[in-house]
Amino acid sequence: MEKTTIQVKGMSCSHCEDSVKNALLTIDGVAAVDVHLQEGQVDVQFNQEVAMKTLYDAIEDQGYDVVPIA
Q: Where is the HMA domain (predicted)?
């Protein structure tokens, strides 16, 4: 299992949290998701077969922006 933290812009309420969490959990290989609204971050635990682009796309499909880490 791998773990990553994704910076997400635009989350502000529990609906946002649920939306992002549920979208990520529908991806085969994603084991756990923890959303931190105040920090604008999402911790994701996933199998190495899951591409980061797949995670990013799932978040962006919900209407939020993934902020690349510099």
A: 2-67
Structure tokens at 45: 């635990």
Q: What is the pTM of this model?
A: 0.91
Is the separation of the CB atoms in 25 and 50 below 8 Å?
no
Strand partners, 67: 7
Total residues belonging to the chain: 70
The beta strand positions in the chain, using DSSP E, are 2-9, 30-36, 41-46, 65-67
Cβ neighbours of residue 57 under 8 Å, at least 6 residues apart? Answer: none
Query: For the segment 5-18, what is each residue's pLDDT rounded down to a tens digit?
Result: 999 999 999 999 99
